[in-house]
Amino acid sequence: MPSESPQPAKKPRPLEWLAGLAALAGASLAGDALSRATHAPIPGTVLGLLLLLGALALLGGVPRGLAAPARWLISHMNLFYVPAAVGVTVYARLLYRDVWPIAAALLFGTWLAMAVAALTYRAVARALGERAE
Amino acid sequence: MIALLWVVATVAVYLAARALQARLGGHAAANTVLSTAAALVLLARATGTTHEQYQSGGKYLLWVLGPATVALAVPLYEALPALRKSLLPVAAALAAGSITAVVSAVLIGKLLGAGPETLRSLAPKSVTTPIAMAIARAIGGAAPLAAVFVILTGAVGALSGAGLLDRLGIRGARARGLALGVAAHGMGTARAFQLGAECGVFATLAMTLNGIATALLLPSLARLFQ
Question: Which A positions 1-20 lie with beta carbon below 8 A of chain B?
Answer without folding.
Answer: none
